[in-house]
Amino acid sequence: MNYLKRIAVSSDYSNILKLINNGKEQMKSAGITQWNDSYPSKEIIWQDIIKKELRLYGDHYEASVTVSKHERTIFIQRLVVHSQHQRSGIARFILTDIIRQEKVNSEVDQLKISTNHSNIPVQKLLTSLNFIPCRKYLIPNREQFGDFIEFIYPLRIFK
User: Fold this and answer.
1) DSSP type of residue 40
2) Residue 157 class from Cβ within 10 Å (0-12 exposed, 13-18 middle, 19+ buried)?
3) Residue 31: which residues within 8 A CB-CB, separation 6 or more?
4) 4-17 pLDDT, tens digit each
5) How many CB atoms lie within 10 A of CB 16?
6) By C-alpha distance, which of 74, 135, 119, 123 is closest to 100?
7) E strands along 3-147, which residues?
8) Confidence class for position 159, pLDDT limits 50, 70, 90
9) Using CA atoms, how far apart are residues 145 and 137, in angstroms rounded to an integer?
10) Are 57 and 94 in contact (CB under 8 A)?
């Protein structure tokens, strides 16, 4: 299985918002308290596009993810798969694609991704890909969502 991948551009904005809203509806109906009406906001998505950190997967906005680098860490955020493509393997493909790409990047030591305690499907996916849960924390102004769990995928051995 292979998916078309590209960096989002400003003309993708309205279609990405539709994808994000679809993800919000999926979480709401599944009882996952990770996203709500105000997060992720239109402004956050626009900034992801402007910074060229938002990646699109598929021919018709099947999935997206934001990937940013800070120092020697890659942060994976806002991974969403359209409801019509749930359980198709695209989320696993995206994460595997990022791992594969960053394993050759000698400037990156680890990948980090967080998910809400209620997002059991993502937790299972991350552990199946050898991401390691390392801490629980509350997000300021989002305490009502409960604990978030940070997962790390080490790319280099720390000494």
Assistant:
1) S
2) exposed
3) 118
4) 899 999 999 999 99
5) 21
6) 74
7) 5-7, 54-57, 63-70, 73-81, 110-116, 132-137
8) very low
9) 11
10) yes
